[in-house]
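Handout for the seminar on molecular recognition.
Each group receives one record of this type.
Step one: identify the two inputs.
Step two: read the structure output and locate the region that could contact S-adenosylmethionine.
Step three: write two sentences on what you found, then compare them with the reference statements printed after the record.
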Amino acid sequence: MSDNRVPAEYMKMDIADAQRFDQKVKENFMPAFPSVARQIIEDYGILEGICIDVGCGSALMAIELCKRSNLRIYGSEIVKSICQVAYKNIESEGLRDRIIPILSNAYNLPFKSESADFVISRGSYHCWRDKPRVLREIYRVLKEGGIGLVGGGFGKYVTNNELDRMIALRDKSLKDDAKAYRAPDKLKEVIREAGISNFRIIYDKTGLWAEIKK
Ligand SMILES: C[S@@+](CC[C@H](N)C(=O)[O-])C[C@H]1O[C@@H](n2cnc3c(N)ncnc32)[C@H](O)[C@@H]1O
């Protein structure tokens, strides 16, 4: 049977924990969000339509993507307190009408099939025990012609110092789970297991991504 549990350290977070989580992500990884968002817009030119952010956390990625496009972004986030912090971040940027976090599990995305032009999932992949299942969900919600980007990159617009610092902090905080972002062959295997054939693995010094095309 499929294992759809979520790491316990996330599930037990109350609102104070979620605020600390958000603070830490901002202190440690903030340069990654504008960098990845800028690269996405340049590489894929996706400026309109529906985007889904799987494991959106406190919505920092969604906010940066939203600022650079006309996308309407739905987030899937399993932890209620993190969702609440995401709402606060979105509200303080004045983006309430364009970013909608939804308390939900990536194993059963609450979106219709073929509804998304773009799916992003950054830094959540290591949490999924049944990775092929989430990838199948991502593929299901993508429109024909849509693109999915799943992984843990920092984007090419960070400085070398920022990159080294973020990689070191990621490795320290994720410990063994950080290996997921250094395993391109495993990512390839997982995607194949999900039954997806049109994809490309991108693995360079700025991180690991799977680019999926439907
Ligand atoms: C390390 S954070 C990354 C957050 C954000 N994407 C970023 O780049 O900062 C991973 C997030 O994925 C969420 N998550 C983990 N498993 C999930 C699942 N099965 N469904 C939805 N969200 C999940 C966690 O609660 C957490 O907020």
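Reference statements: Residues 6, 10, 25, 55-57, 60-61, 76-79, 82, 105-107, 122-124, 127-128 surround S-adenosylmethionine (CB under 6 Å). DSSP finds eight helices and seven strands in the chain.
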